[in-house]
Amino acid sequence: MTEMSSTIAPDNPLTRMFAALLIVVVCCAPSVVASGQAEEHSVAGVVTGIDGSEAPRACVSARPVGPSAGNMGCTEADEHGAFTMRLRPGEYIMRAKDEAEGYPDPNFLLSTDPSAKFPRVVIGQSDVSGVRVVLGARGGVLEGRVRDKATGLPIVGAKVTISDARAPAAYVEVFSNKDGAFQFTVPARPVIVSAAATSYEKGRPEEVALSGGRHVSIEINLGAR
Amino acid sequence: MPTLQRALVSALATVFAVSAAYAEKPSPKPQEVFASYWTSEPGWDTELQLKNNLASGPLTVTPFLRVASGEEIALDPVTVPSNVSVSVWVNEQLLKHSPAVLNVPDSYGSVVFRFTSLSAMNLYATAVPLLHGEPIAFPVSAHPASQSLRGNGPGSLEGIWWQPRAGLNDLLVISNSSEKKISGTLSLFNASGNRWNEVLILAPRQTLRMATSDLLQKAGLSGTYGGVSFQVSSSASAVDGVHFIYSEEAKFSASLEMLRRDPSLTLRQRAGKDAKQWTMQAPMLALRTPDPAVGLPTGTFMQPTIFVRNTTAKYIAASITLNWRGPSGKGEAKLTELRLAPFATQQLQIGAMQKDLGVPDSAHWALVSLTADALPDDLVAIASSRDSSGRYGTESRFTGALGDHFAGGEWQVDADHNEIAAITNTGTKPADALLTLHYDNGEKKYEMQQTIQPGDQMWVNFAQLIRNRVPDRKGNILPVGVDSATYDLRDLTPGSHSLMATGMAVDGMLGLRVHHNYPECCPSEDLGWVPDDFDLSIDDTGLGEVWAMDSCTGAYGNISGEFDDWGSDDSAIATVSNSGKVTGVAAGTTTATASGDVMVDGCIFEPVQEYAPVAVGPYQVEPINTASQGPADCSIKGQAGWVRNVTNQVQYVDGSPYAVSGLTAADQITTTTPNQLGISGAQVGSYPTTGDGSFPDTYYVCSASCPGSGKTGALQNWTVSGIPLPHVNAITYQCTSILIDGY
Known about the structure:
The complex is a heterodimer.
Chain A: H1 13-20, E1 41-48, E2 59-64, E3 68-72, E4 75-76, E5 82-87, E6 90-97, E7 120-123, E8 128-134, E9 140-148, E10 159-164, E11 171-175, E12 181-186, E13 191-196, E14 206-208, E15 214-222
Parallel strand pairs in A: 1-8, 9-15
Antiparallel strand pairs in A: 1-5, 2-4, 2-6, 6-7, 9-12, 10-11, 10-13, 13-14
Chain B: H1 3-10, E1 17-18, E2 29-39, E3 44-52, E4 59-67, E5 72-74, E6 78-80, E7 85-89, H2 90-97, E8 108-117, E9 123-131, E10 136-137, E11 140-141, E12 143-144, E13 155-162, E14 169-176, E15 182-190, E16 195-202, E17 207-210, H3 212-219, E18 225-232, E19 239-247, E20 252-255, E21 259-261, H4 267-271, E22 278-286, E23 302-310, E24 316-326, E25 329-334, E26 338-340, E27 345-349, H5 350-357, E28 365-372, E29 379-387, E30 393-397, E31 405-412, E32 417-425, E33 431-439, E34 444-452, E35 457-461, H6 462-467, E36 484-491, E37 499-507, E38 511-515, E39 520-521, E40 523-530, E41 534-537, E42 541-543, E43 545-550, E44 556-558, E45 565-568, E46 574-576, E47 581-584, E48 588-600, E49 604-617, E50 620-631, E51 640-651, E52 664-675, E53 682-688, E54 694-703, E55 711-720, E56 723-734, E57 737-740
Parallel strand pairs in B: 41-49
Antiparallel strand pairs in B: 1-41, 2-8, 2-12, 3-7, 3-9, 4-5, 4-6, 4-8, 9-10, 9-11, 13-18, 13-21, 14-17, 14-19, 15-16, 15-18, 19-20, 22-28, 23-27, 23-29, 24-25, 24-26, 24-28, 29-30, 31-36, 31-39, 32-35, 32-37, 33-34, 33-36, 37-38, 40-43, 42-47, 43-44, 45-48, 46-47, 48-49, 50-51, 51-54, 52-53, ...
């Protein structure tokens, strides 16, 4: 987990200047805010890679700081990585992903990446701009298909567990669709992939390491119990 | 519903998901159709005519002859193509299957036609006993055992006996189609209504055959006409009968049909709720001067006669109207009102009255209508028209039976045969009639469409249609080589049941035959709304219809015209117009109803109400799948939690997608108790929908109490483009799971 060391406040002249350079995309943005019925304010910023390059179409979300629960969508940045969303007053962590390009979903513990820079913002009584969200290391897209070992037919609803090869408590469960297929963007470090399905023997775990946005397909064949 | 919200929803893409799937067809099941008489006695044979009424597909039928005592003889199965009539000759089949029964005295009984299909009405069958080399034949219509008299209650067969000349043979046949013994009372009446009774017991499947003349002698009744009745206290639907008179010497034969009377039927059930009086009709009474089209020998004159019998123990007044037609035009004549004593029978010599009634001597035909303040079947009437020798002529029973449409038998046309038909509008409004002839083995159609005014008739001469190359409504003509066709008649006027089909077969051998006892076809079963439910947006509309399966053709059709009262259980949710238009008013659910006196199986009007659920949406947002889930990165030291990525979908109340893109689904989550994870406050968010009403959503929980086993409950209220949805989701957060409505 990584946060920027300082929060970005609206009155910071440097950030105001930076924000002015952004191309702001306003879309039907999902937003998540903390409690209260206070007026929303806009939060504008840009998503970049570690090297400072623009991250077009990255997906930005804001999660309240503190013990919280809820749901959140994400706001898609424009072709230059610029985004705008509206939030109610409160303190948020701004995070981003671009799963198609190998940047994993930062909400999962599995995707924790020290190289990512996810800033905190405080929404008070005015708009905020100049927020800079830095994606972490580029992992890869793991695609796969789960099949019946004997018949070759797809297994629907199989649970595929992807865990950190060195920290098994960090894991994600994904589920195969009607074609037996699944897909998940993994972080740039080794992960263990295993699958299980009702009435089938558990599959043998397999280690996979992806980086640089690479797409890899694997086949998992499960034997009937 | 606030105007603003209404406007917002109106601005949405117009979508209403109509459930296209109408109820599945019922499964075919074993059917039985019963004809009360066949014979293979010396000199006799019987033709079994089988017509497949189905709109498509063949029908395989196995005829079973039952001898008088009830034993069955299976004949060869017959496969009949759609809209085709085929004949089976009993003597030929007996030679193959039971020669001992062929051509011997007392070889007679009843016939059962067995087949597997949707309805017994898919088959129209007739048994025609005929005497070889003589113009003597009697068509005996077959009936589904349960059709004419519903249930197993009391009822009777009612008829008229007639001895127009000395030396006639006559047969009165009563059959039991069931597996049960039936006892009843046979009654004979003279013209004044004096009665003679005798108990008859019918063993299972038994056929009894008697001579009316012998019974009259036994009863000590005199006269040339009167009444005959067989009453049973139960199993009335299992009793069938026919009455014939014939003379080989005079070349005379007549079939005096027996009416199956159901005393429980009301005027409303038989004639509809608007009927004030019971009316029966005989549409083709041949008047004194024959129509040249029937080809009788020059100099032949007819003696039209009407018999009317009171089947009850009370006096009944009846009026009779003749609507005549001939080369001089058309006109109407009313007879003096009849007053019928209990059980009495009257004969009206129409031929002798023609001049006094102002009916021109040149007139050929009359539509005879008999009206009485009586229950259906309280009166039995027969129209007869014969020349003085009895050689040429016809008899037909008056009928008040109306159908949704008629599935006719076979028409023949060649040097010796023709068919003349009268389609009568018995109603009070114009009727749009469609008469379809099916020829070339049922594969081709010739369609005549005509609007018939009330009381008027459409006349069809089969031979003339071919000879004069008359184009049908699509410009088709009947090929010269066509020698037979089957037909059906349909009243295209919505909700109308006023047409009556009567055919007269012109036969060089047999003279004339009226056969108007074609099966009346009605919606039989599987009535239901189409669509069978409605998912509507607010202010959107859907058009509902009620469809049903036709008893004869097995085809489904729109019978909305039968229903005159349409509505909604909750007009604050949806309204339903009398044309079936369903309009969403506010989010929620209600039921659309269509009610009316509907002509259903057996062509009886019954009060019917049909329902269709209506959901005015959107109603809810629910997850439809989980993409991924796992421990959360809570970004705060000391906190842990869970993340679940789902696809949410805006839905109607039945869970079907509210498939509108570009909507904004917004939610507010409020924690409830227990709140063991220490979550505070309300969360809000908004999401754009895709084409199937779905959108990705990430649920999460982060708490300092994680890891642990605590739970926090929450309520999730959704709006779609500003309109609150009725359903509130219940969420349960735990450190290693997030459940939404239990999912």
